[in-house]
Amino acid sequence: MVGSLFALLGAGALISGAVAADPAGTVIYTVSGAGGVWVAFRSCVMGVRIDSTGLTARGLGRSKVVPWCAIGTVDTGEGPGLAPAQAPGLVLKNGEQVGLGALASYSSRTVDADFALIKSLHATHVTDCLNCA
């Protein structure tokens, strides 16, 4: 929504001609409009996509593709207390940690179901894959 507001602000100022006499204003509103369009688009495609090749975690600024073979463990971040000890995510075989903050939800059942699905798909892949053995 914020991206759409910036896009409208930039487009409205450029279309109305309010900044036509000022080149700096034209640049500022053009950048504001383009940035707003980018933020609006990226916020629509954010999240985690799961398919047969692995996981794709898409954030506002970048995307990370993680093949099933590269995943060591799925870490839910659960700790001994009520609050998670760390952010949920993946621990890759090379030791790198990939956060899956896009799976965050106010419902712990939803998060638990999402991570149960990821764990089961990863376990199925490991048993069926010749490269993971």
Automatic annotation (TrEMBL):
Give the species this sequence originates from: Streptomyces nymphaeiformis
Q: Where does the Low molecular weight protein antigen 6 PH domain start and stop, copy by copy? A: 48-102
User: By what name is this protein known?
Assistant: Low molecular weight protein antigen 6 PH domain-containing protein
UniProt keyword terms in alphabetical order: Signal
Q: Cross-referenced InterPro entries, in alphabetical order?
A: CFP-6_PH
| Signal peptide residues on this chain, from the entry's feature table | 1-20
